[in-house]
Amino acid sequence: MHQRPIGTATRGTTNPNRLRRMDRWIAATHGPALRRSDSPVAVDLGYGAAPWTAVELLERLRAAEPRTAVVGVEIDPARVAAAQPYEREGLTFVHGGFEIPTTGQALIRAANVLRQYDEGEVTAVWERLCARLAPGGLLVEGTCDEIGRRHVWVALGPEGPRTVTFATRLGSLQRPSDLAERLPKALIHRNVPGEPVHAFLRDLDRAWATASPYASLGARQRWIAAARAVSADWPLTDGVRRWRQGEITVRWSALRPATG
């Protein structure tokens, strides 16, 4: 008996290059795992009304591992039908939801999918998606603005959440806490005093302000100085190579919600 896909349709908003920051991070940090995989299949879950994000994901991941295949999964059958003319070798589109109608994924990317759900639903969705990963697989779930200037995502393995990455176009950044509006659903309501994510963004803002003399060398050097400063108190998992891209990644254990 055919089962109804699990979940509800997103607004479907998408723009070319919207997810480039997330894609580049995935290719850089998860590329070795893709190369080790016997079947490097990536799922673009909830790609929206147009197939651009899946097309771009294939291109960027194939730069890291040429064998990579991408499956776009959408709960709206009309969106699947509209995307299928874009199929080619290594790129397919199928009807489905959180149950993921394929198995053993090396990667699942869910961008701007959970924002319409309640915070209390997130853990169950994460667990369901992580159960569809191959050993060594990765789930990346997060939110960005309409043109991809600000983006925050959680990376999860089969065992659960590992890290949180904040990524921004540095030339448009006033202060790091501006990224708070793009926190994923698991954290967006936790940006209040007493919660770790609030403390982290507060400390990053302070480090950004202290690093203002570096602004004469450019926003990139200022960001690197701020990241280096917060690394003394927060467990960052990356370094200058990623900081130069306008990123900073923190262990999930340090930002995990404190209450509720």
UniProtKB/TrEMBL annotation:
The keyword Transferase applies. Gene3D superfamilies: Vaccinia Virus protein VP39. Keywords: Methyltransferase, Transferase. It comes from the Bacteria. One of its GO terms (biological process) is methylation. SUPFAM superfamilies: S-adenosyl-L-methionine-dependent methyltransferases. Transmembrane segments: none annotated. Its EC number is 2.1.-.-. The keyword Transferase applies. It is an enzyme of class 2 (transferase). One of its GO terms (molecular function) is methyltransferase activity. This is Class I SAM-dependent methyltransferase.
